[in-house]
Amino acid sequence: MSEERWPLPQNWRWTEAGEIADVVGGGTPSAKDPDNFAETGIPWLTPADLTGYSRVYIERGARDLSEKGYKTSSATLMPKGAILYSSRAPIGYCAIAANPISTNQGFKSLVPASEVSPEFVRLYLLASKEYAESKSSGTTFKELSGSRMAKLAVPLPPLPEQRRIVAKLDRLSTRSRAARDHLARTATLAARAKQAILVAAFRGDLTAEWRERTNPPAISADPTKIDNRARLIDALPPAWGWAALTSLAEVAGGLTKNQKRAAMPMQMPYLRVANVYANELRLSEVLDIGCTATEADKARLQNGDLLVVEGNGSRDQIGRVAIWRAEIDECLHQNHLIRVRPSPEVLPEFALYWLLSPPGRNAIEAVASSSSGLHTLSITKVKGLPVPACALDEQREIVRRIETAFARIDRLTAEAARAAQLLNRLDERLLAKAFRGELVPQDPADEPAEALLARIRAARAAAPRPKRGRRRKTA
After folding, report:
1. Which helix or strand (DSSP H or E) is residue 320 part of?
2. How many Cβ atoms are within 10 Å of 407's Cβ, its own excluded?
3. What pLDDT band is residue 468 in, cutting at 50, 70 and 90?
4. By the 8 A CB rule, do 44 and 60 touch?
5. Taking the model in full, what pTM does it have?
6. Rounded to an integer, what distance in angstroms lies between the CA atom of residue 219 and that of residue 255?
7. Banded pLDDT at 232 (limits 50, 70, 90)
8. How high does pLDDT run on average in the chain?
9. Which of 417, 411, 409, 408 is closest to 180 using CA atoms?
């Protein structure tokens, strides 16, 4: 008798997957023999082919089997309409065969009876991932065996109602997917908006009207120490000027890690590259390093210091920078983090946002070296970075306007994320209603599921049983 997971309408019935479909496993030929695979051969699927796959139907995976590979493995060619269900690593991927197809051993697929909608069963299986996982076994990784797959409880409505449910869910999911895609673009648009704000800020546009009202004093800046590779930058407002970072801040390296430091009596917390991201410090794992008192004085961080990553394998990650807020007492930094300590004439936040801005990033990438796949900066190169200099009051106003705009963008992004979560919950509730018989009305004229089940049982009992055993291997 089938497990009854919840009450069903009168003309529905609980059944088992093995009652309404044949359960078919898969197989993989030896990967050591390239002749077992073909560029165009017998379609073959692995769970990896369904990673991130959201469409209903699938034609083939990344590789096909050759005739030899098919004959020397336990893979089975299943018909169009087979429900391809991954039974391990992970459990729960599901698609429908758009044409005859085989799978590897990571599937327990269903070849449904002709009067069972594959689309209906697929949607039920997608909504029942946790239920299927609860029936699995294994220690290294969970796997749903063929016998347990066959015992999975499946709610069976009359065939016309199966089709009505699928059609209704398709219409609703199309709307839900469009809304979700729109919300997913919010994060990209938010990042672009922040970049546009930073560009406007350091071009002087963000505070143009503020300067007209307040008439701040002009800045006398010395551009002679700017690295020549980063000198071609947009014009600044008349009251501003270009200066090298070394004219506005103290730039220094940190401690070089070596084996001798483990034995030093003085051990202090220090920051590594792994702790510093773009405008973000990740401090869940801060290690200790041995040092002398002199070294500690040299590498000790102060509130408002900027930390610039010296090297990275990705060009867009070189020079990522964050601000230190004295989150940890008596903390040092390693030599792969270049410390920038702004002078009293420069707000740390102003320097931070400049280095995060598109023109600031362009300057960093322009002076960075590239060798053996690693992009690197140096203390000298950081000292030569250009910085737009303006009055301290205008710096405060720029930082205030940037942070106000960013906070507004972050609120919109958070609202979009909450909306996406609500959509997910809505989809889950719609599926739950669908498989309880609450999504579409029942039609008294539909043939009851009991009669449908009886006919399926009779047809399967009369059908010849397939021969069991492995396919004979060819030489």
Report:
1. none
2. 9
3. very low
4. yes
5. 0.71
6. 35
7. low
8. 93
9. 417
Q: Which of these, 156, 127, 128, 215, lies nearest to 14 by C-alpha position?
A: 156
**Distance of alpha carbon 292 from alpha carbon 429, whole angstroms:** 62
How far is the C-alpha of 20 from the C-alpha of 156, rounded, in Å? Answer: 9
Give the 3-state secondary structure of residue 211: helix
Query: What are 196-208's pLDDT values in tens digits?
Result: 999 999 999 999 9
Say if strands 306-309 and 337-342 run parallel, antiparallel, or are unpaired: antiparallel
pLDDT per position as a tens digit, 417-452: 999 999 989 999 999 999 999 999 999 999 999 999
Kindly give the interhelix angle for 358-367 and 159-203, rounded to the nearest 10 degrees. Answer: 80
Q: pLDDT (tens digit, 9 = 90+) per residue, 26-79?
A: 999 999 999 999 989 999 999 999 999 989 999 999 999 999 999 999 999 999
> Under a CB-based contact definition with an 8 Å cutoff, are residues 22 and 146 in contact?
no
> Residue type for 381, please?
K
Residue 365 contacts residue 230 (beta carbons within 8 Å): no
**CA gap 93, 85 in Å, rounded:** 6
Cβ contacts of residue 211 below 8 Å, gap of 6+? 204, 237, 239, 394
Residue with the two structure tokens 């299986």:
125
Tell me which residue of 94, 15, 97, 107 sits closest to 51, measured CA to CA.
94
DSSP string for 331-388: -EEBTTEEEEEE-TTS-HHHHHHHHHSHHHHHHHHHH-EEETTEEE--HHHHHT-EEE
Tokens encoding 103: 């799978």
Kind of pairing between the strands at 102-103 and 321-323: unpaired
Q: How many CB atoms lie within 10 A of CB 442?
A: 16
Residues 6 or more apart in contact with residue 437 via CB below 8 angstroms: 8, 9, 12, 155, 157, 161
- For every residue of 244-255, DSSP letters joined together read EHHHHEEEE--B
Task: Check: CB of residue 439 under 8 Å from CB of residue 428.
Answer: no
